[in-house]
Specification:
It is built from 22 helices and 16 strands. It starts with 8 loop residues before the first helix and ends with a helix.
Length: about 575
Amino acid sequence: MDSLSGITPRQARERLGARSSGARAPATPWARFSAWLECVCVVTFDLELGQALELVYPSDFRLTDKEKSSICYLSFPDSHSGCLGDTQFSFRIRQCGGQRSPWATDNRHYDSEAPVSLQGESAHYFGYVYFRQVKDSSVKRGYFQKSLVLVSRLPFVRLFQALLSLIAPEYFEKLAPCLEAVCNEIDQWPAPVPGKTLNLPVVGVVLQVHIPSRMDKPESSLLEQCGQEALLPAPLVLTSVHELDLFRCLQPVLTHVQMLWELMLLGEPLVVLAPSPTVSSEIVLALTSCLQPLKFCCDYRPYFTIHDSEFKEFTTRTQAPPNVVLGVTNPFFIKTLQHWPHILRVGEPKMSGGLPKQVKLKKPSRLKTLDTKPGLYTEYTTHLRRDKALLKRLLKGLQKKRPAGVLTALLRRHLLELTQSFIIPLEHYMASLMPLQKSITPWKDDFLCSLEHAGPQLTCILKGDWLGLYRRFFKSPNFDGWYRQRRKEMAHKLEALHLESICEANIETWMQGKSEVEVVDLVLKLREKLVRAQSHHLPVKEETLQRAQLYIEMVIGSLPKDLQAVLHPP
């Protein structure tokens, strides 16, 4: 590596483009790397071009021109933020064609076992940014400005922020050779397997992470889910790969957290205007995580600028605002998005009476284009009454100087129980239809009538118009996403039960008196079910799969030699 220290940027890019002669199999270059990241980008400021993409690594990863433009503009804070020093934030962009990552097929095993809210994105990229702006007299503009960006399909914001905090300072000092070494280290990492605790070595540090699984208990800690390993050097243990400090992120809106939960549940359009990309992206990611374990199925952009390729699409007044949560820092959006129903304006965090200063609820008519004060501007009326006890507990925790993690756990548990109380009646109703009916319409009176004796009131103390909340939820993208996911799971369960029933049947008895055509048809259908069970990771026991394979062999063996040769080619 040291021999690279004197090379030019162009030579460095060429060297980075060449794959090193490591232990990777040549048939699948960067296979382990691509299980975590799509690529790493370096964005710099060019006096003639503005933000410019200096480097993409691996160099054979193809981004479209539109994706390159989005990454360039979103990797720098806009001029209103005034960020000096080091800044971390994140963004999310729409994939615009070009090279299609094999995520949908190669990582199906991960998606089948991961919580739905942590599955890999199929149509979007996440960008995790480490931006540095410091005075530098050797640069014409007077400032060194550069961003290191990790592009991934995984919503592992905590993990990638921690990774950037380790590698970005090193990169800014050593540039290309350091980046090549880091990417080669990531290419040696084990794949992210849900339910497993992994040790991920990078730049002399071992990151220890637990990859969440659908089988994990809600809110169980890393220490409960796994045993600690005796490693030297001692690993840097991340308690979560994806969860942010919810209490810190939502500090200015704690009094309205229940209203914001309802807005997220219903997929309402919301603009978050913040003083910096860090604050905007953290609030947006915190809000969209409030529905866990329910997946937030609407679009969301943790950081969004006027240069984004979807700017016109999101700001048009010719149709209703889209179901999107936008994080912005440019006050220009106040004017452009005045027709949106909900706008949250937050300032720099301030303390007031022991509790972070809270934004006030205000009418949209009080929005001012130039000098809009912090506030939640909306006409929305909540369906549920506010839980005043929650705020008292948080205030008491602050006064007693309890750790931030404790307050975050308190807030997250409240939101988790609220979501579970809302969704459990729907889960029970859906389960009652299995396996008699494949198509359901839960917004009809039969479900709504069941709420009287089996509704959220059984598990939640909050009073209010639960019925009205359900009626609006049924019209939202989040219901559509939940319904499609549950229907898919039910279909997979039915397929698994059908395969098990076939394997428990007496095939020899069934074959008696059957024609060759019928027997061949059985072989083909059994093979199809076996392939589908394995490729879609259906909930089938391994012994059932083995028995199905034995049945196929047995049935083929009963056929004439010419048919055996066709069905069992050498």
